[in-house]
Design goal:
Structural class: alpha+beta
CATH topology of the largest domain: Jelly Rolls
Number of strands: 17
CATH superfamily of the largest domain: Galactose-binding domain-like
Distance between the termini: 7 Å
Radius of gyration: 24 Å
CATH class of the largest domain: Mainly Beta
Strand content: 15-25%
């Protein structure tokens, strides 16, 4: 009996569309958006490495709309640069280091990682290093060489340090620093609705979120050297409107497993890392199961980032690699389609084509796989090759023809 369902044809359309996108290769990157509303495994500390006093001005992960005071009434602090949450000062009303307000330098420290040399390290930042009439001076003349070299307690002073640093874990020394390029007050357009062109304080044409990067070239001396690193994001206040907020941290590397024991990625503890582990991980993400065994990237949360880490870093492969042989190619498409789960609504696992983690095999899984640009690119580290879109479409037509005759 012929299968006259249009669903396989929709699959061809979806994949063909993906092939029209730029074939860009993306290495595994650690991305932190703090979108579970917490700092996760990041540590909030002072310059002594200890927790900050409760009364100190500090940071909080927030999705609240925060309105600026006069004369900026009606303007709201920028929303997140990605996701829902971003990191902002708290208490919001006490940003200035005046009488009765304690302003310690506060540091948010990342989990430990190694660098792989695949790209830039970047953090989206807002806020500033002074008020709108001061020049930005956050690239102070002598950046601190270590944590205890940062200013400690501020009381309306011109000493400032606002940015982030790459910390060599072994030596406990900062090896690279990055700062915003100009003053930035984090004040978005009124009500987040378009740009208020009549407001003289709004800098027309300037991105208020600034992506502050350390380039791939500058990171090169610290790559693949058997060393591990952390990021310290730090903020020492410098008077009125002197504060910093941030979001979307991207690290070109992999987390270091300091847990001791177990096979990385083996979430069901059977001493084998296979598709069953991915299926259990997908189930955990869907149901909100926060058991630590599912936190394979050790960031303190169980979410889609763990699925990405499982396939990209632990298995050194790509989304779409149904048979987990380290490449995404035609054999994976055949494996997935032959399972007969495509657009049926039946439960599907990784081998069956569930690559987006909803435990179904749908067009969304094909989009997830092909948008990585890894089809027929070979294993990680191999010289990239760009497949001919026409060849792939012919392959899919062959798969659909096979399915229609079943």
């Amino acid at each position: 009996m012929l299968n006259t369902s249009p669903k396989p044809l929709l699959a061809i359309a979806a994949i063909s569309t993906c092939l029209l996108l730029t074939q860009t290769s993306y290495a595994d990157t650690l991305v932190y958006g703090f979108d579970d509303g917490t700092f996760g495994d990041w540590q909030l500390i002072g310059t002594d490495g200890e927790a900050l006093p409760e009364e100190s001005v500090s940071w909080v992960v927030s999705n609240e709309e925060r309105e600026f005071a006069w004369p900026y009434t009606g303007h709201f602090l920028l929303p997140a640069s990605s996701g829902e949450y971003r990191v902002v000062p708290t208490p919001w009303e006490q940003r200035e280091c005046l009488v009765g307000v304690i302003c310690h330098t506060h540091i948010l420290r990342s989990p430990e990682f190694s660098l792989d040399g695949s790209g830039d390290l970047s953090i989206d930042m807002m806020g500033g290093c002074g008020n709108s009439k001061r020049e930005c001076a956050s690239d102070f003349d002598n950046p601190a060489g270590s944590l205890d070299g940062l200013p400690t307690l501020q009381q309306y002073t011109t000493t400032d340090a606002m940015g982030y640093a790459l910390l060599d874990v072994e030596t406990n020394q900062y090896v690279l620093h990055a700062f915003q390029s100009s003053f930035n007050d984090g004040r978005g357009p009124k009500g987040w609705q378009g740009i208020d062109q009549d407001n003289p304080f709004y800098r027309e044409g300037q991105d208020i979120w600034e992506t502050v990067s350390i380039s791939q070239a500058d990171l090169a001396p610290f790559v693949s050297n058997e060393k591990t690193y952390r990021i310290d994001i730090y903020d020492s206040y410098r008077g009125p409107w002197s504060w910093m907020g941030f979001d979307t941290v991207k690290i070109p590397g992999s987390l270091v497993d300091n847990g001791g024991g177990g096979v990385p990625g083996d979430v069901n503890s059977d001493d084998i890392v296979n598709a069953v582990d991915m299926d259990e991980l997908s189930q955990a993400v869907l149901t909100g199961d926060s058991d630590a065994r599912f936190d394979v990237n050790s960031d303190g949360a169980v979410n889609g980032a763990d699925r990405s880490h499982w396939i990209n870093s632990i298995n050194n492969s790509y989304f779409g690699d149904a048979n987990l042989d380290g490449v995404f190619d035609s054999s994976d498409l055949v494996t997935a389609f032959v399972s007969g789960k495509y657009e049926t609504g039946d439960a599907a696992g990784w081998i069956d084509g569930d690559w987006d983690g909803d435990l179904l095999f749908t067009t969304g899984d094909l989009v997830t796989a092909f948008q990585t640009g890894k089809y027929e690119q070979g294993p990680r580290g191999a010289a990239p090759a760009v497949p001919e879109p026409s060849s792939l479409v012919m392959l899919l037509i062959g798969v659909v023809a096979f399915l229609r005759r079943r």
